Each structure stands twice: as structure tokens, then as C-alpha cells.
Amino acid sequence: MSRVPLPYSPKVLELFRNPKNAGPMEDATVRAEAGSPVCGDVIVIYLKVNEDGVIEKASFESYGCAANIAAASILTEMVKGKSLRRAWMVSWKDVAKALGGLPSVKFHCGVLAVGALRRAVRTYYEQRGIKPEWLPEEPTLEERHALEAEELAKALARRLGVEEG
Amino acid sequence: MVPYFTELAYGNPTITHRPGWMAYETIQRVSEEVSRYIGAHTPEELNFTPGETEANNLAILGAALANRGRGRAIVISEVEPLSIMFASKLLKRHGFEVRRVPVDGEGFVDLDALSKLVDEQTVLVSLSAVNHEIGTIQPLKEAVEAVRDRNPETLFHTDMSDAYGRIPIDVSELDVDLATFSSYKILGPRGVGVLYVREGVEVERLLEGQIGTQRLWPGVENVPLIVGFLKASELMFREFESNVEHMRRLRDRLMDGILNEIPDTLLNGPRERRAPDNVNVSFLGCEGEALTIELSLRGVYVSSGSACTRRILQPSHVLTAIGRKPEEAHGSILMKVSRTHTTGDIEYVLEVLPEAVERLRRLSPVAGSGGE
Asked: What is the pTM of this model?
């Protein structure tokens, strides 16, 4: 259980210090969340989607480490102006690459950010009763990871005998 | 320390040439002086090791294995350093039972529970004098007595790395059998520690090789580091009381400043009977690793018990054992003041810390209990 040496890239540190698109969005079309405070990792994504299904604005909130904040921030930059379909195609590896790389123990931060975004996209369509052809029936790895993080947290909470929160 | 690398005592102390002889005499001199600081009866009771981790492993594994004829159980607390926790796990593989004593919400060991866990099978008890994360000063004298009352043959080990130079220590008066000391934790060089082993106590070596001046740790001694350990000890003990008073004053200013000026904070560990250098606070709604980086960018270097700072991504076992919820442990920050810090240093921390916490809380969807 040694300490992680934090070889964070300059980009991660820059976005950690000066994150773009930080904060909740008043007029968001959809909001979705991934992770759990019990795990020390939460990302909330807000999207404002126009009538053509294009993301006009994206913002985030993060309770987590520097990589978590930077991943959420860069993802909101990456999907701005994209259609929901193209936003869906952004992978956690794209996020890691855009950040100039992530330490391996922090890959899950990229996965969690993408998981939150995909949950937002799925929620957007579910709320409208639409089922686009390209949207997979089954949750993707990133969405499952977000879920697993929550289940892991619940299991941990049970083991420690604390309330789930 | 530097001349010992080049001019003085660079020889192998087991060899009969002049540099070797100087090395031998240097180690003897350091052993004598350090034995006075810790209250050992003779310098031969000290064994230099490459550090606290090695000394703790030697104590746990070496003492248990040497005395396995007397029983197959050891007792440790829930809040021991990882070297003790993991060495105990290793003992399990050798067929030992490892019993763990719980602690209360401030990290104090439950003496009744300790007493009940000691029986005829118990060969060794290990309890740190001062907790390495939350600064709890254990009632060591009472713990030793509770153990002796149950089984006078049970050996008692204590890791004193966080106590040495911070609280008065006398291993003979405390009546412990084994005790660990670390150079690194008193601003000395890394790579050297001490295991005190009371005369007559059997400990098995963990490594084999040429035995020089150290009965329990083979290999050629690192004289410059051993001298560095002495130097750090001298600086700590030369004005022990004023050093402690200085640290305590800075600690109180830092601790009170944080708790009074930043909302949604929890002190981890006790207020009284706390090591004079230790501050450990949880900032609710603020993740610890992010806070360490935020502070580092402002020139303040602290550590955290958050899962994010650890490879296995689990929060500190010490904070979990005192009943902190994971989300409270994730926001924990450990700060140590030292005799070289100044009031100005503390005021600077108190100036930048509220801003750092506030910035991260603004980013966070998880508010502290009264944060919104």
C-alpha cells in the first residue's frame, strides 16, 4: 500500500488548477452522476442539448483527486459542439490521451468521466422515449465501471458497518 | 556525517585496520549515546537496522519465531504501522494466530480487551507508543502491566519511532522487551533505525551473512548513516523540553486555526495525550489527494489518508479503525510540525489552506455536513 508517486502531466496539473466548465448548470437538459463519495470519486456531468441533438454546453462537478477533476474538465471540453452520437464515441483512452497521459492507477478517473457522460446521454434518450439504433442495449464498460464503483462502495460500507451514503 | 563517507570510519568495522577500527569505535560511541537517550542498560541492547520497517519486521518475526516453543499467538492493535500489520500477516503463514485489539474513537487501545487477548499461547504483544497517523499517545505502562499480569513470559514490543524525541522515553522503566526507533522520523537520514532488544530476550535473525557489530543484522554497517542518526538525536535531545514546547505551540496554533477557521472539519485523534508534532484533520466534502496537490502547488507539503493516494485505493486503516467513514477518511490531511518550523510557516499554512479547501469544495457535488 505504498504511496502513489504522482507523475501527473502538465496538462492534468493545469486543468486541476484552472478547470474549464466547472460547476453545476442551471439550464441543463440532462444531468448524470458516476461514482460514490465512499470511494472518494464522484463526477457529475451536465449537458445542454439543442433540438438537433448537439451538445451546446457541458459542465461538471467533481469530488475526487486531481486526475478526476482534470478528466471531467477535459471531457466537457471534448464533447462541446459534438452530436450526442459522436460524444458517445469518446473513450476513456481518448480522455487519457488528451490529458497527456494518466498514471495507470488513475485510468479509472478517465473511465468514470466517460461513464458519467454516457449515463447522461442514455438518460437524455430514455427521458424522451427515444431509442437510437447506435445506442447499445447493454451498458458499456465505462457505464458498468461507474456502476461497479458504486457497488464496490456499498460493499465496502457494509463491510465497515457504516451507513450507505 | 559527510566526513564519515570519505575520511573517517569508511572502513569495515570487522577488519583490523585503522579505518575499520575507527568505524568500530564510531558505532560503539553512537550505541552508547543512543542507549542513554532511550534508557537502555547497555549499548549491546541496540541493533542498527536499515530503518523502522526492518526493525519492526525483525521484532515481530524474529521474536515470535525464536519463542514459538512457548506459544503460537501474537497480539497487535488495529492501528499499527503497515510494517507491523504486514509482518503479522507473514507470521500467520508460519501458523501463528494474530489477535487484534480494538481502539476507541481517539485511537486509544482498549486495555480490557488487550488483557483478554493475552493467554498462555501469547508469545508477543506489539503496540506503538505513539500512533504514526493520528498522534495518540498510548497508555504504554498500563498496557505492559496488563500483559504481564496475564502472562509474565509474553514479550512486549513497541514501535517508538513517532515517540522518540517527542515524549520522554525510558525503555527500562517502561519494562518493554523490544522497541523500534527511526532516524528518518526525527529529521535524520533515511536508511537507519534501531531495534532495542532487552538483554536475554531471544530474537531470530531474518537475514544471514557476516555478523559485524550488529548481532541481529548481518552485513557491513553503514557508519555515515548511523552517525547521522546520532546527530539528529543530539539536535532533538540537546534542548528536548524547549523543542517539544516549540512543536506543541506550533501544533496548537495550526490545529486550532484549522478547526476554528475552516467549517466542516474533524480532528482525527485526541486533543489531550497527543504527540506534540501531530495534526490530522478531515476536511469534509474535499478529497485529500486533490488537497495535497493543491497545497503542494503553494509550497506546503502534507500527506493524506485518502484512498486516492494509495495504490490499493483503500482509505487509511487507522482512520477506519477509529470509526471514520470512508468519505471522512478521504478528506484527511496529516501534517507534522518539527523543531525547524517557525510561527511564520504555520501562519502561511493557515493563510493558504482555507482558500485551497474552499476551491475544491466549490468544484465538488458532495458538500460537507453543513456546507450548503
From this structure: 0.88
